[in-house]
Amino acid sequence: MNFRKQLKKIIIGAACFTVLATGIGALQTPSAHAATVSASATSVQKANAVISAAKQLKGKVKYKFGVNNPSKLWFDCSSFTKYVFAKQGVNLKWGSQAQSKQGSYVAKSNLKAGDLVFFSVSKPGRVNHVGIYIGNGQFIHNTIGSNFNGVLISKLSSYSKRYITARRVL
Questions:
Q1: Helices and strands in the chain, H and E counts
Q2: Which residues form the NlpC/P60 domain (predicted)?
Q3: 0.85 surpassed by pTM
């Protein structure tokens, strides 16, 4: 019985410590808290601007494999993401594999608008396509199909077997 009482005290003490430790974050100085909120708002604003820029290019961009020609609006998938993110001051490398190593990993269940999503569209298991998650289970990407060439909004679920990973760069 004595052992159970000690164990109960330890568990209660650990729970109190956890509550106290997480509460310390709430005791940040107002300026530190404001900086955190401001950085978050800036990320959301940048994501919205990236998505808006990508949507504005629908019907104007041509997909060309291995091409990065902003003056003619000819892009492959990764030069397209590089182009629209650059408009918000975010420097992405050219190439879907290179972009898949930038920023930080994001679980599919934690995607936010503005995250880069990566797929395998030719070689199984190998990143070779990138798009921008826009929310509500959709992403925007520059692609080519039998009846399509350019910027397209697609359902993430339509690419579920091809999905590989996601990265947050904002």
A1: 4, 9
A2: 44-170
A3: no
